[in-house]
Specification:
The complex is a heterodimer of chains A (382) and B (471). With 382 residues, chain A is an alpha/beta fold. In chain A, 48% of the residues lie in helices and 12% in strands. Chain A is built from 15 helices and nine strands. Chain A has a five-stranded parallel beta sheet with strand order 4-3-9-7-8, with helices on both faces. In chain A, strands 1-2 form a two-stranded antiparallel ribbon. In chain A, a hairpin with a 5-residue loop joins strand 1 and strand 2. Chain B has 471 residues and is an all-alpha fold. In chain B, helix 3 runs parallel beside helix 5. Chain B is globular. The chains are: A alpha/beta (382), B mainly alpha (471).
C-alpha cells in the first residue's frame, strides 16, 4: 500500500477531472473552439493536433473547478494575503475595490504633460475633421469625456502604484482640462463628466466596488448634461432629460459587476459593496435617431437613453468598441440627428484605442479633406 | 507534444500508463514503441520518416560493426552527422555564405528553407553514441530492429533529452518488470518536474520575456539585471523540470535514465559548472570528442584547443545561430582562463579551506554564467552586447530604479515568492532531496498538492477570458 498510494492519487486526480462535470461554464467570454476535423493534410501540417488540443482544453468536464482552483491559488498568493495584483487584467485595491489594470497602467505611468498635450492635439485634430464634416451636414457632434474609476477611488489604489510612482499620476483632473481646452479652441461641443461627478456624495457612488465602469446613476447625470448641451444647439430638435430621483439596485448589470465574476474564484469573491445606484427619470417621449459611438463607458449611456425615453433601441445606431465602416457611416448620416462620441478620457489620448477605433473613419475624412483641398486648388471649368 | 500540455497530461499519458500496466509483459515494448512514434508524429508528423530512416540506418551500420575495420563506424558517424548538418545547419550555412558572396557582387544561392525536425540533435547524438560504443566493444550490437527502434524513439527522452546512451538501458530494453515502487517513485519525480515547470520556470519566464522583449533603449539597468537573473533561473528550471519529468516517466516504465543536472548554480568553478549542467550532453562531448581529441593529456596548448572545440560544439549544438557560437566561445575562453589561472595554484577554489575567497570566486563564476545566458537568450550578438552594456554601464535614459508599469506588472507576490523559491532551490539543501520526497509521508502530501495545483494550471492554461466578454 505504501508503494501505491501516490499512484492511486495520481490516477484519481486525472480520473476526477474527467468525471466532475460542471453544468455551468466559467465566467468570461472566450472564442469558440470548433470540433476538430481529422484529415491527412490537417494532421501533417499539425493543424489537427492544435485544434484537438485546444478543443480538449476547453471541453474537459471539470474545467470550471480546475479554473477555480487555479485562481484560488493566485487569490491566496496575490489577493487574500497581500491585497494587490491579480491576473493580468484585474487588480484588487483596498476594501475589496477592483480595478482594471489598464486604467492603473495609464494613470500611474510616467507620461509627461508635454506628451499628453501632443497626443491630445493629435486626437483633437481628428475630432475637428469629423466635426467639420458633420457640421456641413447639419449634424452636431458631442464628445463625452468619461472619468476613470481611479479618479474617484484613488484611496483604494494598491500601495505599490503609489509607492513606486509617487507624483506621476495622470487622470481626469489633469488630462481633462488640457483636452477640453483644445476642444473648446476648435469649437467642438463636449461634456467633461469628471467635474459633474467630482462632488461629495457622488464620488463614492460613481463606480461600483466590484466593477470597472461607471454606474447607471453617474452615467445618467452625464447624459442629462449631454442632452442639455444638444438642447442649447437646437431646442426644437433635442429634448432635455429630467432626473427625478435615485434608487439602490442589488441586481448589477453585466457591465457593473463583470470584474468580480471574471475572477472565477471559489468561493465567489464577496468583498466590496454588493449594490449600486441608478437614476429615475421624468417620463419623456420624444425619441430621435442618433449615432452613439465609443468605448465600454458608452454602454451605460446607451442604457440610460433607453430607460429615460430619450431614444429607443431601434433609433440608436450603436457602435461600442468597434469602428464604423465608411459606407455605413455615410448611410447613417442620412438618418441620425446627432453624433455622440463617448470614451474614457485617458483613452482619447491613447493611440491604440482612439486611433484604432476611429482609423477607418479618419482615413476617409483625411482623403475627403485632401480631395477637397485639391478641388479648391484646381477648380473645375464649370 | 510536451509533457506540460493538457493533451499529454490528461489523455495520452494516463491511457498509455493503464495500457502498459494491464498489458501482458510481452506486449509492453510494442505498446511503448507505438506510443513513442505516435508521440513524435503528433508533434512533427513530417519528421517521422527522418526519425525512422535514422533508426534503420544506424541499426544497419551497427550490424556491420561486427566486421573488422573502422569503415562502418565512420559511415555510421558521418551519416548521422550529415543528417544533422543538413537539417540543422544548412540554412544557416547558406545564409552566411550568401552574405559573403553578395559582398563580391556574386549571385546569392537559393535558400533551402529546411524545417528542423523536433529532437534531431538528441536522437542523432544517441545514435552516434551507440555506433561508437558498439565499435569500441563497450556494448553488444543490437540485432533486433524493434528493440533498437525503441531505444532511439523512446518518447520520454526523444525530443529534449537527457541523451541516453544505449549501454545504460541495453539490459532494460530486453527485460523489465513492473515495479510498484518504481511506478510511484517515477510519478513523484514527474510531479516534481511538472510543478517546477509550471510554477517556477513559467513565472521566471514571464519576467524574462517581458524584459528581453522590450526594446533595449527602454530598458532600465535594474531590470536588465532582473531579466538576466530570471532568465538564468528559467532556463535551469525549465530544462531540469523536463529532465525530471523524462527521468520520472522512464522510471515508471522501469528505465533508468541518467541525471542531467546537479545543482549547477552551486558550482564553485566554471569547470565544476560544466560538470553539473546538462550532464548527459557534456559527458557525451567529453567521451566522444574531448577524450578522442587527446583531452588534457597533451600540452597545455592542445588541452586549450580541445576545450575550445568542445565548447564551440556545445554552443552550436544548441542552435544554428551566431549567438550560440559566441556563447560556446565565451564559455570555452572562460574555462581556458580559469585553467590558466589555477593550473599551478595550490589555492584552487574547489578547495574552500585552501582558498578563503572561494565564495567570491563562486559568485564570479555565477556572474560569468549570467553574462553567458545573455548571449544565449538574445536574438543577435549586437542585441546581446547592447543588453550587457545596459547591465554594466546603465541606461542614461532611465534611472537605475525605474518602475515603469511594464516592469511593475512583473512584480506580483506570486512571482516574488517563486523567485525566492527558485533561488533557494538552486542550491543543495541538506536532507531535502529526492529520497526525502519518496520516503517521507509529509513530503509525499506536499508533492501531491503540488501535482493537483500544477494539473489545474496546465489544464486551464488556454482559458483566458476577455475582460469585455459582453461584446
Amino acid at each position: 500500500m505504501r508503494n501505491t498510494i501516490f499512484t492511486i492519487f495520481f490516477f484519481g486526480v486525472i480520473f476526477f477531472s474527467w468525471v466532475l462535470y460542471s453544468t455551468s461554464a466559467p465566467f468570461g467570454f472566450v472564442d469558440k473552439v470548433s470540433t476538430p476535423q481529422f484529415g491527412l493534410e490537417a494532421f501533417l501540417d499539425c493543424s489537427y493536433q492544435k485544434s484537438a488540443e485546444k478543443y480538449l482544453a476547453r471541453n474537459i468536464p471539470s474545467l470550471k473547478y480546475l479554473l477555480y482552483l487555479k485562481n484560488d491559488i493566485y487569490d491566496l498568493l496575490n489577493f487574500g494575503s497581500f491585497h494587490a495584483g491579480y491576473d493580468k487584467t484585474i487588480i484588487q485595491g483596498e476594501d475589496g475595490i477592483l480595478f482594471e489594470s489598464g486604467n492603473l497602467t495609464v494613470t500611474y505611468g510616467s507620461t509627461p504633460p508635454e506628451v499628453i498635450r501632443e497626443l491630445s492635439q493629435k486626437s483633437v485634430l481628428e475630432l475637428k475633421r469629423l466635426n467639420s464634416f458633420l457640421a456641413e451636414r447639419g449634424i452636431p457632434l458631442i464628445v463625452v469625456l468619461a472619468p476613470c474609476k481611479v479618479d474617484f477611488f484613488d484611496f483604494a489604489t494598491p500601495w505599490k502604484f503609489k509607492v513606486l510612482n509617487p507624483g506621476l499620476k495622470i487622470g481626469s483632473a489633469n488630462v481633462g482640462p488640457i483636452y477640453e481646452g483644445l476642444l473648446a479652441r476648435d469649437g467642438i461641443h463636449f461634456v467633461n463628466c469628471f467635474p459633474i461627478l467630482d462632488k461629495p456624495g457622488l464620488r463614492e457612488i460613481s463606480f461600483p466596488d466590484r466593477g470597472t465602469h461607471w454606474t447607471l446613476h453617474s452615467s445618467a447625470l452625464c447624459l442629462e448634461k449631454i442632452a442639455s448641451e444638444l438642447h442649447q444647439i437646437n431646442p426644437d430638435k433635442f429634448p432635455l432629460i429630467d432626473i427625478t430621483g435615485t434608487k439602490k439596485i442589488r441586481e448589477f448589470t453585466n457591465a457593473e459587476s463583470d470584474l468580480a465574476d471574471l475572477l472565477n474564484i471559489w468561493p465567489k469573491y464577496s468583498h466590496g459593496k454588493p449594490y449600486a445606484y441608478m437614476a429615475e427619470f421624468a417620463p419623456l417621449n420624444k425619441p430621435y435617431p442618433l449615432l452613439l459611438h465609443g468605448d465600454s463607458f458608452s454602454h451605460q449611456i446607451h442604457s440610460n437613453m433607453i430607460l429615460s425615453g430619450y431614444s429607443t433601441g431601434e433609433m440608436i445606431k450603436y457602435f461600442e468598441n468597434r469602428s464604423i465602416p465608411r459606407e455605413e457611416f455615410l448611410s447613417l448620416l442620412k438618418e441620425v440627428k446627432a453624433v455622440i462620441l463617448v470614451g474614457n478620457v485617458l483613452k482619447f489620448i491613447l493611440p491604440q484605442w482612439w486611433h484604432d477605433l476611429a482609423a477607418p473613419l479618419n482615413k476617409f475624412l483625411e482623403e475627403d479633406n485632401s480631395a477637397r483641398a485639391a478641388g479648391d486648388q484646381n477648380p473645375s471649368p464649370d | 507534444m510536451v509533457f506540460s500540455s493538457p493533451f499529454f497530461l490528461s489523455l495520452f499519458f494516463p491511457i498509455l500508463l493503464l495500457l502498459y500496466i494491464f498489458a501482458p509483459k510481452s506486449a509492453r515494448n510494442a505498446i511503448l514503441l507505438l506510443a513513442s512514434l505516435f508521440f513524435y508524429a503528433w508533434g512533427d508528423p513530417r519528421a517521422l520518416p527522418i526519425l525512422i530512416c535514422v533508426i534503420i540506418f544506424t541499426w544497419y551500420t551497427g550490424l556491420k560493426l561486427a566486421r573488422p575495420g573502422r569503415i562502418w563506424m565512420i559511415i555510421g558517424v558521418v551519416g548521422n552527422l550529415a543528417v544533422l548538418a543538413f537539417f540543422k545547419y544548412l540554412n544557416f550555412a547558406v545564409i552566411n555564405l550568401n552574405s559573403c558572396i553578395t559582398f563580391f557582387n556574386l549571385p546569392a544561392l537559393p535558400l533551402p528553407d529546411i524545417a528542423l525536425p523536433i529532437g534531431i540533435s538528441f536522437y542523432i547524438f544517441q545514435a552516434i553514441s551507440y555506433i561508437i560504443d558498439a565499435y569500441r566493444k563497450q556494448t553488444a550490437i543490437q540485432t533486433s530492429l524493434f528493440k533498437f527502434s525503441l531505444y532511439i524513439s523512446l518518447f520520454p527522452q526523444l525530443v529534449a533529452g537527457p541523451i541516453v546512451r544505449y549501454v545504460s538501458i541495453a539490459n532494460e530494453l530486453g527485460s523489465r518488470s513492473l515495479s510498484a515502487a518504481n511506478l510511484q517513485a517515477g510519478i513523484i519525480r514527474f510531479s516534481i518536474g511538472l510543478a517546477k515547470k509550471v510554477f517556477i520556470a513559467d513565472s521566471m519566464g514571464y519576467i524574462a520575456d517581458v524584459v528581453f522583449s522590450s526594446p533595449a533603449d527602454t530598458l532600465p539597468c535594474l531590470w536588465a539585471w532582473i531579466g538576466a537573473i530570471t532568465y538564468a533561473l528559467q532556463i535551469y528550471y525549465d530544462f531540469s523540470a523536463y529532465s525530471d519529468m523524462a527521468i520520472g516517466i522512464g522510471k515508471i516504465f522501469n528505465f533508468n535514465f541518467p541525471e542531467n543536472f546537479n545543482y549547477p548554480y552551486a558550482a564553485r568553478t566554471l569547470q565544476d559548472f560544466w560538470r553539473r549542467w546538462h550532464m548527459s550532453l557534456t559527458t557525451w562531448l567529453r567521451d566522444y570528442l574531448y577524450i578522442p581529441l587527446g583531452g588534457n593529456r597533451g600540452s597545455n596548448i592542445h588541452t586549450y584547443r580541445n576545450i575550445l572545440i568542445i565548447l564551440l560544439c556545445c554552443g552550436v549544438w544548441h542552435g544554428a545561430a551566431w549567438n550560440f557560437f559566441f556563447w560556446g566561445l565565451y564559455n570555452g575562453l572562460g574555462l581556458i582562463a580559469e585553467r590558466m589561472i589555477f593550473r599551478k595554484s595550490p589555492q584552487h577554489p574547489r578547495n574552500a579551506a585552501a582558498f578563503p575567497g572561494a565564495v567570491l570566486h563562486a559568485l564570479l563564476v555565477l556572474l560569468f554564467i549570467l553574462i553567458g545566458w545573455v548571449f544565449f537568450r538574445s536574438d543577435s550578438l549586437a542585441e546581446a552586447l547592447h543588453y550587457l552594456e545596459i547591465m554594466f554601464c546603465g541606461n542614461p535614459a532611465f534611472p537605475f530604479l525605474s518602475f515603469e508599469w511594464a516592469w511593475l506588472s512583473c512584480v506580483t507576490y506570486s512571482n516574488i515568492i517563486f523567485f525566492i523559491v527558485a533561488l533557494v532551490g538552486s542550491q543543495p539543501i541538506k536532507n531535502v532531496n529526492l529520497e526525502f520526497a519518496e520516503s517521507s509521508l509529509l513530503a509525499k502530501i506536499g508533492v501531491a498538492m503540488l501535482f493537483v495545483a500544477a494539473y489545474a494550471f496546465v489544464m486551464t492554461s488556454d482559458y483566458s477570458p476577455f475582460l469585455y466578454f459582453r461584446f
